[in-house]
Amino acid sequence: MTIEESPSSSSVTPLPAEAFAELYARIDGVVTTPGDATWDAARQAWNLSADQQPEAVVAPRTAEDVQVVIGFAEANRLRVVAQSTGHLAAPLGDLSGSILLRTAALSGIDVDSDALTVRVGAGVLWGDVTAALAEHGLMALAGSSPDVGVAGYLLGGGLSWFARSRGLATSHVTAIEVVAGDGRMLRAAADEESELFWALRGGGGNYGVVTAITMRVFAVRDAYAGMLLFPLERADEVLTAWESWARDADEAATTSIRLLRLPPLPELPEFLRGQRFIGIDGAIAVAQGAGAAAERVAAAVATLAPLRELGPMIDSFELMPAGRLGEVHMDPPGPVPGVGDGANLDELPRAAIERILELAGPDADSPLLAVEIRQIGGALAVPAADGGAVDSMPGRFLLYAVGIAPTPEVAAMVKSATTAVLDATRDWHSGVDYINFRESQVAPERLYPAATLTRLRAAKKQYDPADRIRSAHPIL
Ligand SMILES: Cc1cc2nc3c(=O)[nH]c(=O)nc-3n(C[C@H](O)[C@H](O)[C@H](O)COP(=O)(O)OP(=O)(O)OC[C@H]3O[C@@H](n4cnc5c(N)ncnc54)[C@H](O)[C@@H]3O)c2cc1C
Question: Which ranges carry the FAD-binding PCMH-type domain (predicted)?
Fold first, then answer.
């Protein structure tokens, strides 16, 4: 079948449950279908706002299982969607006509402390990798949230607290094991299936179902990390000062600033519950080695000083073990219903700050939990040597707006608020955005430069000619 003839959701007649029973008999993993008692739990994404209604949910245990599922999908004109957590479930749509392949059982974390690499199964979460590496005095380029999946994060790029000194996490991937959309079980690396290796590193889940990933790790035990918290009433002053600091700050620092309206949730510490803040958090890399802590953090303390001089009400920056960096950003520890979206910004001039404050500052009546701006640039701006399809990140800032959306009505209200933030800053948008922060369906031209997109599409024809694999951000 060609890409033009690929199955669309409208052309698919639901398969009888017996067909999936036959699939179940052929694999080690678990198949769940709409009549099953566990159906709602099986189809549920991390983002509870996503109402995923696939034809079946399969939890494979092995790469061989994945191969069987892809063959079954081909025989029955279905598509396959891989998902480790469902953090990026929102742009996928309702998943009719697709088998949802949940990868949690593709586990395993193998640390090679001599080669300084780790091989992880595609269903592994960042928190588990970080903890396993910490036991060896090692660190990988994890993002802010421990319960984000390694696979989706790395296939999209991967922005860690070391991003401005070490670049995108995906540029440190050394091998990817995958069952391609055409059913072949492949290993992609610099010297094997090199075009697929290039495409997977940034091309998202468009090429197949990844079963394991190997990446470089670093002998980094700790960093100077934490949060500075100010009342939201000081948003203008603090955002203005941070923008001017962030533009020229040392590349050792990767930070984020957020205008926060926290819900009155019992799981939050009392002083945060229901309160409004502007917070700066992140990490500053420090010298590793045997020196005294005060000496090792001296440069980081100097880097942070201009922000500290603003006089935060809370200052938690300290020398922190790498294994605890997942606590810094206080991301939700489990599934939540959310609507969010983001865009890369070339600059954050006074006019942009004013527009953001109008929508989310202290005088705004905003339904948004957070309007966040991450500091990018530094090593992120430089294409990585031998990098993949996403080997750098445009712009100096990465904007992301998000709100909690427990009902469809609230979701619609939050959606219009996130759109308003993106629209208000449109004059400063970079040419392309970071795919992992785009949580709405966007044209692929917004995610990749033209030459990259042409090459990604050629690789798609080579490895998934029937467009069997459905991804959060399709490139066709
Ligand atoms: C609270 C929160 C914090 C975040 N923090 C950061 C951060 O600090 N830095 C950052 O860079 N990003 C961050 N993100 C964005 C995050 O990287 C993306 O949402 C990412 O896609 C999540 O990966 P996942 O595997 O958990 O999600 P999933 O929704 O499971 O996967 C996302 C997509 O990846 C593809 N995919 C997943 N697994 C496979 C597989 N085995 N084979 C093939 N394709 C696959 C699929 O297309 C899937 O739709 C954050 C998101 C949230 C919600």
Answer: 50-220
